Amino acid sequence: MGNEGGLVMTLSQIQFELKAPKSQFNKFGHYAYRSNDDILKAAKPLLKKYGDNLSLTDEPVLVGDWHYIKATAKFTDKDGKETTVTGYARESVSKKGMDDSQITGTASSYARKYALNGLFLIDDTKDADTSEYHQQNQQRQTSKPSSKQQGNNLTVNANRYKTLVNKYAKIAGSSFDAVNKDVKGIMESDQSNKQLSKNDYLKKSIGLVESMLKSAKQMQQEEQAG
Questions:
Q1: Which residue from 22, 71, 118, 174 has the fewest beta carbons nearer than 10 Å?
Q2: Does domain 1-124 have CATH number 3.30.70?
Q3: What is the reported pTM?
């Protein structure tokens, strides 16, 4: 138990101390953002300070006709205890001026960034819809919901999920059914998801679609910027 507490304490301390500036700038969207390299640059001194390690790995995941990159960020404290967080990004069908390896590399960068964001609790979201969703979650956590409230939350989350899937399908030039099938395929590839309640499974699916939507929007803006 002491080691587990040490892991939580060390990771929490790094989460608190880590400051990753947004050193990149998107000329088309006129906004600053941070890359996974920015996060790693900020994390390395803290990892050295506390004697911890961080590794990043990629795994290609084929869901239907779409290729995704599943990135895993594994944090290991000095006593060997581990915490892992995953992030997903779909490979673009084509991208101006890029070959296949570069397209895969771009998806890997996005997926790793989302995994690092989750590990270090970095809020890199400017999407009003996503912010609204987080606010709804915070409001739900203020008190223990009744059975009726739980039913209402399930309905709210189901509607939220449908809205996000439709948004992603529009950007990706796909359909609701195709994207919904992709999301289910990714969720089912993680055995731990089978232990979740229906509402928790739905909320995790929402988080996955949000990650995919952010990736698609950023890729779209970069493509338009040329």
A1: 22
A2: no
A3: 0.58
